[in-house]
Amino acid sequence: MKHVTSRGGRTKSALWTILGILAELMLTAAAICALYIAWQMWWTGVQSEHNQIETRQSVSWSDPGKSGNVTVAKAQQGDPPVQPQSATEGELIAQIYVPRFGSQWQRNLVEGTDLTQLNKHGLGHYTDSQMPGQVGNFAFAGHRNGYGQPLGDVDKLQEGDPIIVRTQDYWYVYHYTSYKIVLPTQTEVVAANPENPGATPTKRMLTMTTCEPKYSTPTHRWISYAEFSYWAKVSDGIPQELASQNANGTVKFVNNEQSSFLSSIDTLKPWIFGALAAYVIIFISAAVAWRWPYLADVRAGRRKKADFSLYGSLVRLQPGVLPIRLLLVLLLVFAAAASCFEWLFPWAASTIPMLQEMSNYTAI
């Protein structure tokens, strides 16, 4: 009877061990999925912000909002100058401001709409469309979700909302008019005359394209239209749409280009290697100071050997007392998660078909 009971107990223990391992594997898979969502919806935006700041710092554009005496630029009469006349792939064309998206919202606009530009540099200008201030259709694309979701709030735009374009020397102020939802094949929305494709354009229009729906595989495109209102000189100050005034009449630029600490991080490699280096140092120190007290207790019969589990075994195999062992495991987990952000998830988003469709918006 005693032998039968022991066998039944071992069978039951083995079953619970297997179930426990399966549960750990499922929790690990869920954690990886959660990390991927965090990477897609948050970390890609941090990287995009970093790249955009670097791009702005690389050009010699003045910053009218940082001067001691900020003024409202006078609206100019006559046809606006066209700037730039042309641009190379990836070159900074303008900075875009949309107050409806938030007082601190601004994005770079670079030449080109391939994934390199849209994923890393904010907004991308359709190379065949017109430039700011030009008669025709000044069109650009941007992500609606992930990569900083520059056009994530296009559905909040209201008729008359300003969309401000700043080039090196000029401000161009457009006002939002309407939107439509189209198929990706309907490329006429970025034609020089989207209202009557093929006809000679007579208006100065602005078109923004992004994906629809926002949170799933984009099957359509959300098209936002705006029309030109006026232009001003950067040397004269800032547009009234980007100005605020205090009780003393002092004019301030509402967008002060606040950036997060994380946007200063170019790569996670130093953090990954730093965590691994800290792990090695603490591991060796703990092994010298305490050795493996848990394993020693098991071998000496002072403690019952625990059932096998993935994470439990990982903790128990570390040297030192329990707080040190937990710290060592946390360092390994951090290094693994950061490695996913740095290498695994970018590879998956560009290689696995389903993730490609979900992660990478293709312009019209």
Q: What distinguishing features does this structure have?
A:
single chain; 364 residues; alpha+beta; Sortase, Chain: A; eight-stranded mixed β-barrel; elongated; disordered N terminus; Sortase_E; Sortase; membrane; transmembrane helix
Counted beta strands: 10
What's the CATH topology label of the largest domain? Sortase, Chain: A
Beta-sheet strand percentage? 15-25%
- Which H/E pattern describes the elements? HEEHEEEEEEEEHHHHH
Overall 3D form: elongated
- CATH superfamily assignment of the largest domain? Sortase
Distance between the termini: 76 Å
Question: Which radius of gyration do the C-alpha atoms yield?
Answer: 28 Å
Largest sheet descriptor: 8 strands, mixed, barrel
Residue stretches low in confidence (pLDDT < 50, at least 5 long) are 1-5
Identify the strand order in the major beta sheet.
1-2-3-4-7-8-6-5
Give me the number of helical elements: 7
Number of structural units classed as domains: 2
Helix share, percent: 25-40%
